[in-house]
Design brief:
Helix content is about 40%, strand content about 20%. The chain has about 300 residues and is α+β, with helices and mostly antiparallel strands. A seven-stranded antiparallel sheet has the order 1-2-5-6-7-10-9. A three-stranded antiparallel sheet has the order 4-3-8.
Amino acid sequence: MSNLQCFTAILMLIGYTSNLHGFEKTIWQHKLDYIAIQEVENIPTKNQPAAQISQPILASALAKISIEPKSSDSLLSSLVSNDEVKTIFTEREVKVLSEGIFSTLQSLANNQLLIFSVSDRHSSFLGIGAETLYSSGSVYVSGNDLYLLLAEAQVDIQKKYIRAGNSVNNSRFATNSELKGFKLSTGDYSSETDHSWQLQLSDGVTQVKQRKDWIKIALDGPMQAAQSKQNNQQPNQSREIRATANQHESNLTFKETQQQRVSQPSNQQQKSEIEVRLEKLKQLYLNGQIPEQVYLEKVNAIIEEI
């Protein structure tokens, strides 16, 4: 193959990739977190969003999104299923996403949506301890509905990076510079990816195309009523508090919120012992000193003692 033919093939490949994935424009970024506008061809035609959709309504919709593990017959799944039903986004992540969506609603074209990757401190296994976990996906508004295609839900980006086959200078952990160019998947509209979780359905939340990772949330009706009720419950809010809220409404930076765990004093000592044992097992697993099967067996054994 001549040099000209090679060059032409490369250009065709670049053009195909651009048409397949669309062009991205980052509108907000903080370390590995980001929100970007992406052009996509195979999403449903979008209508102009209704004017009455506000940032608080969007925030309320995002705050109610939860995931649950897919049904399984394993002992581990049956024991922790109730604990593992959790909301996807923390207060920090909800703020970033709702403000990003609201600030770009009027500027998005019919073939554009927002892709995102956000992170925060989340409770780890069985709610013990906390670690920084990432969620990613795509989101857009059509009429009075918020569409969310969730690609990754509260994943350890370090483990994701290494399991993707990327080499690291350190034998166990990637540096910030190595992770800088690594992006989580933001979803595939043509086919559903196999996940160990599924999005929970509730009042006003329905599946799109019968997929477990794609939902539609009605922003009118129940969502607006809930927001109005919340506003009416705080009629005596001071002007100073309102002014502070308005000042930060369109700011995509905010203070980290402190997560608190409430425990019963009677079993505090027992919980502390369990925490130490589980954390030790987890560290051995992450360090590669024990295989995943042994890790799960040991965890099951500890759970049976509770």
